[in-house]
Amino acid sequence: DEIGDMPLTLQAKLLRLLQDHEFHRVGGNRLVKVNIRVLAATNKDLKQAVREGRFREDLYFRLNVVSLSLPPLRERPDDIVPLAEFFLDFHLREMKRPPRTFAKETISAMRSYGWPGNIRELSNAIARAVVLGTDDKIVPEQLGLGPWGVDPFQEGENLPYHDAIEQYSRHILEQALRRSNWSQTKAADLLQLQRTYLSRLLKQKEISVEPPSL
Predict the structure, then answer these.
(1) For the chain, N or C: smaller number of CB within 10 Å?
(2) Nearest to 122 by CA among 95, 149, 93, 151
(3) What is the tally of helices (H) and strands (E) in the chain?
(4) 131: Cβ–Cβ under 8 A, 6 or more apart, which residues?
C-alpha cells in the first residue's frame, strides 16, 4: 500500500526481490527463495515521481503490468451506501455488536460528504460509530460528519432557500451546544460569535439551552 511513498533504498531492494525471486533476512545468511506476485497501490502520480527521481523507473515498469485507476469516492456517490453497509456489517461482526442501521439523514450525509480519505476514511468512520454508538440507528454525528454533511434536500422534496438556511442554522447551533456541554460561552467561542448574539439567536429560534433529561 502507498508504494509511491517507499524510500529509494527500499525500492532497490524490492526490485532485486522481483528480479531474482530471492532475499536474505535481516541478520541471516541463508538465501530465501520466493514465488510472489505484487499488488501495489498509490495515490501518487508515479510517472511524475519517476521524472523527478523520487521513484525508480525500472521498478515502475516492473510493477506496471496491469494498471487500474480507481476514481475517488466523491466521484462514485452510488457506491457510497453499498460500501457503507458492507463496512457496517463487517465491523459489527468483528466487534460482536448487535445489528444497527443507518438513519435516513445519515445516508444523505454520507452521499453529500466529499470523503477526502476515500474508502479508508469511510471504513474508519463507521468503525468509530460502531464503537461509540448504542442506539440502533447511526446518526451523522457518530460518523463525524455533523451538520455539514447533511443534505436538506431529501429525495422527492423541495426546500426553499430560507427554509434550508433555517434548518442548517438550527442544526449548527444545537451541535455547538452539545459539543460545548451546554455552555453558551464555550459554544459562542466555538462558533466565533459574541455571547450576547448567540443568546439572542437561541431565544429567537426557541432552542433549549438545557441538556436533555435522561
Answers:
(1) C
(2) 149
(3) 9, 4
(4) 95
pLDDT in tens, 87-115: 999 999 998 889 999 999 899 889 888 88
Strand, coil or helix: what is 137? strand
Residue pair 175/146 in contact by the 8 Å Cβ criterion: yes
On the 0-12 / 13-18 / 19+ scale of CB atoms within 10 A, 134 is exposed
Q: Of 69, 151, 74, 72, which is closest to residue 109 (Cα–Cα)?
A: 151
Let me know: does 60 contact 46? Beta carbons within 8 Å.
yes
Q: Angle at CA 105, nearest 5°, toward 100 and 107?
A: 65
How many Å apart are CA 76 and CA 65, to the nearest integer?
A: 26
- Residue 5 and residue 44 in contact, taking contact as beta carbons nearer than 8 Å: yes
Alpha carbon of 109 to those of 45, 93, 113, 171: distances in Å? Answer: 30, 24, 6, 13
Whether 52 and 43 have beta carbons less than 8 Å apart is answered as no
- Residue 148 is classified by DSSP as G
User: pTM for this one?
Assistant: 0.55
Each residue's pLDDT tens digit, 13-43: 999 999 999 988 888 889 999 998 999 999 8
